[in-house]
Each structure stands twice: as C-alpha cells, then as structure tokens.
Amino acid sequence: MPRQIIPATALLLAGALGNAASGGTELLMPDFDAALGRTLFASKGCVVCHSVNGIGGEDAPVLDFDKDTGPMNPFEFAARMWRGAGAMIYMQEEELGGQIELTGPELAAIIAFAHDPEEQARFSMDDIPEYILDVMHGASEEHEDDEADADHDDAPDSGEDHD
Ligand code: HEC
User: Fold this and answer.
1) What radius of gyration, in Å, describes the C-alpha atoms of the chain?
2) How many Å lie between the centroid of ligand 1 and the Cα of residue 1?
C-alpha cells in the first residue's frame, strides 16, 4: 500500500464521526480531545517529569509543540513513548510509585494536547491536582538533597518518606 499522509483535520473529523481509519482495516480513530488531554497531562502525572508552557519537571524532554514540525502522525508520538519506555517506567516507579495507566482514549487526548498550541498556552498550575503537586514537590526536594532541610522541618529531607 502506498504511504499515505492523513491531514490532522481528517483525523479529527474521523475521530468525531467514529470513522474507520482506512479502507480494509477494522480500525476506528479515537476522539482527539486536547482540552481533556490538558487535564490528563497533569492528573496522570506526565507533568512531574515533562514540561509544557514552562510548567512541569525538567527530568524528561519538553513536550511543547514545535510549530515548525507541522502536523504530526499521532502514532509517531506513541512510538517515541515506546522508545523512552524503559527509562520512563523506571522513573515512574521511583517518583509515582508505579507505572502510569492509560486507556486508548486517554492516550489520544494527551497526544492531541501535545500537538495543540492553543490548548498548551492554556496550561497552568491550576490544572495540576494537589496529589500531583505533592509528588512534584517531593521530586524537586530529592534534587535538593545537598541543600540541608529544604522544607524547614527538623528532619533531613533525604530521610523523609515522599509517598
Ligand atoms: C517519572 C518521569 C516521567 C513521567 C511521569 C513521564 N515521563 Fe515521558 N519520559 C521520561 C523520560 C526520562 C524520557 C526520556 C527517555 C529516554 O530518552 O530514553 C521520557 C520520554 C517521553 C517521550 C519521548 C520524548 C522524545 O523526545 O522522544 C514522550 C513522547 C513521553 N515521554 C511522553 C510522556 C507522557 C504522555 C507521559 C504521561 C502519560 C509521560 N511521558 C510521563 C520521564 C517521564
């Protein structure tokens, strides 16, 4: 089959209508809900390590959409996640206590958010739930182990339980 470039708008339309991806395959395109993706990027914990719009961790590649790249194939993003999976899962176990679980529609929403400059510009600290802020706080404290007692209690931070 010849290589096909499907414009993002066609993918979005297919998602909205629940259309088959193409000719003979038994595939449906999911909804690419970038606004939902904005909340999931925070609530699922991607933001602990990745930043968008200047907000988030610095341990992993920045996920700001690069407008010079042009429209993206969503599976390319999934393939990049797969490539980084070893390091990501190891770090998720360290910092979040386990691997992040995602359904197909959730992943589609996050991928949409990663490629939607308007939705990314809306991303703010208000999108981040308390329990994720706690993890982010804990993660940055670990990096400050050299500075004595960053949270100003009497115990050294490195000995504290960040769960
Ligand atoms: C605990 C830290 C951590 C969390 C949480 C995390 N990641 Fe990552 N991620 C990483 C690291 C580290 C890499 C780089 C791995 C490498 O280069 O081998 C990475 C790589 C990636 C890449 C590939 C980037 C590139 O430039 O190729 C994508 C895409 C990605 N992550 C998406 C996500 C999404 C989406 C989530 C949330 C569902 C998430 N990550 C959660 C640490 C994390």
Assistant:
1) 18
2) 32
Dihedral angle computed from the Cα positions of residues 142, 128, 115 and 118, in that order, rounded to the nearest 10 degrees: -130
Crossing angle for the helix pair 74-83 and 104-114, to the nearest 10 degrees: 100
Residue 75, H or E segment:
helix 74-83
Q: Is the CB of 60 within 6 Å of ligand 1?
A: yes
> Residue whose CA is closest, atom 34 of ligand 1?
46
Ligand 1 centre to CA of 41 (Å) is 11
Q: In terms of pLDDT, which residue wins out, 140 or 103?
A: 103
pTM attached to this predicted model: 0.80
d(CA 50, CA 62): 5
Average pLDDT (87-106) is 95
